[in-house]
Amino acid sequence: MIVRISLWNVADSDTGLDELRRDLLEESVAAFSRVDGLLFGAWVSNAHAERFGSIELFDSRDAADQPLPGRARQLIGKDPDLVEEFDLEATVSIASQLNELGLAFA
Hints:
Radius of gyration: 14 Å
CATH architecture: 2-Layer Sandwich
CATH topology: Alpha-Beta Plaits
């Protein structure tokens, strides 16, 4: 399983957090709910630091490598300032589908 973290500094971007939130509600959340192999997706922000990002959990390398439907790059006007991928080691969750996933449980 692959975890991807993407972060943007939106201080000098083409959009703000309000527009990004609007896109999440109107398009992106629904579009991401149909991505094959995406087990979990979360969008995060820090208004004080003017940061926006996403955290995604994929069931495989192939799933992580597929094109994704989000418009954040387009709205912000640039690629993320940081993109890092990790192997999933372990999870704990009240959602049974997300509990005890990762390499530690393999």
